[in-house]
Automatic annotation (TrEMBL):
Upper taxonomic lineage: Bacteria, Pseudomonadati, Pseudomonadota, Betaproteobacteria, Burkholderiales
Keywords: Biotin biosynthesis, Pyridoxal phosphate, Transferase
Protein name: 8-amino-7-oxononanoate synthase
Family annotation (PANTHER family): 8-AMINO-7-OXONONANOATE SYNTHASE, CLASS II AMINOTRANSFERASE/8-AMINO-7-OXONONANOATE SYNTHASE
Binding site for pyridoxal 5'-phosphate: G112, Y113, S183, H211, T239
UniProt: substrate binding residues: R21, H137, T358
Gene: bioF
Cofactor(s) demanded: pyridoxal 5'-phosphate
Chain positions with N6-(pyridoxal phosphate)lysine modification: K242
Domain of life: Bacteria
Name of the top EC class for this enzyme: transferase
Length: 393
């Protein structure tokens, strides 16, 4: 059939560019030491930055949530799927974000991808302008497309170009949209400057804190706590399947923004609510994140980051040392990144090779992510293998 032939040709073209993606199948929970495709591996690829995905207190809370609320929600939030656990989680998240927002309210979503589609499509109509950072996550790019607003992309970290774009724009509604922590580089957006621009130009500042929530800030409240920001112009999206270890995401903003999303955001309205048990488990994740255990997990994570920075000795490969758990090593060509990942794999280390379109062409990389669940010995083994590989190649 011709339709299938053209897909086969497309797949072969991906192979030729070293861009074909393959999945691996894990038989054990998300953790540093996993059984994957029948082999024992040491993994540096998850976003489970605090090691909460398989934490006994979190999994017990999930089971308790299932016992209390059943397996599924059965309907969307606006029909009958909104459970007490969802409401409790939203109240808790609103309290967490209260120091950073005016009249804070929070809304729980099934995924961060959907939350970003919801925010951008509901806040930016056809008459709006979206100012999007060049390295933003795919879900923000897709959200901007769905919004059908005009989109201005500004270069990575370049608040000067953004200021010019804002000054030249006549749209009545403006949204500046940025990752808080960039998912493939690990660096942090200049949010203080971005917020000043948003306030000067009467724009929303939409921050995607997928990789900062749980990790940054003394209490793990994320990038807004890290910078100590507060403004009615802020709209924060945080995911709960990464450092929080469970799943779903939230948007926190002024109560009027949230009420608008409940009424108008199609990715919120037209989907079955996430299992209430998930929200119930997240209450325990938040207890850990905000408590002494969360603080000591963040301290341990920072020690592992420092160890990696101090001990890596690479020539020709660029370690993009970042202040977060995301520590990319840029090799450039897709083929080189794939070959390095294959050599690590042969040594029992699971580190993903990230290629375009996830990152710009010519910047294929090993995306090393560290977790508080790793030990210093785990990181030592990674560093030693990377140093040795780099010296051989
Ligand atoms: C993972 C991620 C998302 C999507 O969140 P999910 O809950 O996984 O759908 C959005 N933005 C960024 C920056 C991410 O890294």
């Amino acid at each position: 059939m011709q339709l299938l032939d053209s897909l086969e040709q497309g797949l072969q073209a991906l192979d030729a560019q070293h861009l074909r993606r393959r999945r691996r199948t894990a038989d054990t929970p998300c953790a540093p030491h996993v059984q994957v495709d029948g082999r024992a591996m040491l993994a540096f690829c998850s976003n489970d930055y605090l090691g909460l995905a398989a934490h006994p207190a979190v999994t017990a809370a999930f089971a308790e949530g299932v016992a209390r609320y059943g397996a599924g929600s059965g309907a969307s939030h606006l029909i009958s799927g909104h459970a007490r656990a969802h409401a409790q989680l939203e109240e808790r998240l609103a309290a967490i974000m209260a120091p950073h927002l005016e009249q804070a309210r929070a809304l729980y979503f099934c995924t961060g991808y959907m939350a970003n589609l919801a925010v951008l499509s509901a806040l930016a109509g056809k008459d709006a302008a979206i100012f999007s950072e060049a390295l933003n996550h795919a879900s923000l790019i897709d959200g901007a497309r769905l919004a059908r607003a005009e989109v201005h992309v500004y270069p990575h970290g370049d608040t000067g170009v953004l200021a010019e774009q804002l000054a030249a724009c006549r749209a009545s509604t403006k949204l500046i949209v940025t990752d808080g922590v960039f998912s493939m580089d690990g660096d942090i957006a200049p949010l203080r400057e971005l917020l000043a621009l948003a306030e000067r130009h009467g724009a929303w500042l939409v921050v995607d804190d997928a990789h900062g929530f749980g990790v940054l800030g003394d209490q793990g409240h994320g990038v807004l706590e890290h910078f100590g920001l507060r403004s009615p112009h802020l709209v924060l999206m945080g995911t709960l399947g990464k450092a929080a270890g469970v799943g779903g995401a939230f948007v926190a903003a002024h109560a009027t923004v949230i009420e608008w999303l409940v009424n108008r955001a199609r990715p919120y309205i037209f989907t079955t609510a996430a299992a209430p048990a998930q929200a119930h488990a997240l209450l325990t994740s938040l207890d850990i994140i905000e408590g002494d255990e969360g603080r000591s997990r963040r301290t341990h994570l920072q020690a592992l980051i420092a160890q990696l920075k101090d001990d890596l000795r690479l020539r020709g490969w660029q370690h993009m040392a970042s202040p977060t758990a995301i520590q990319p090593i840029v090799l450039g060509a897709n083929e080189h990144a794939l070959r390095a990942a294959a050599a690590l794999d042969a040594a029992g280390l699971w580190v993903p090779a990230i290629r375009p379109p996830t990152v710009p062409a010519g910047t294929a990389r090993l995306r090393v992510t560290l977790s508080a669940a790793h030990t210093a010995d785990d990181v030592g083994r990674l560093v030693q293998t990377l140093n040795q590989l780099n010296a051989e190649i």
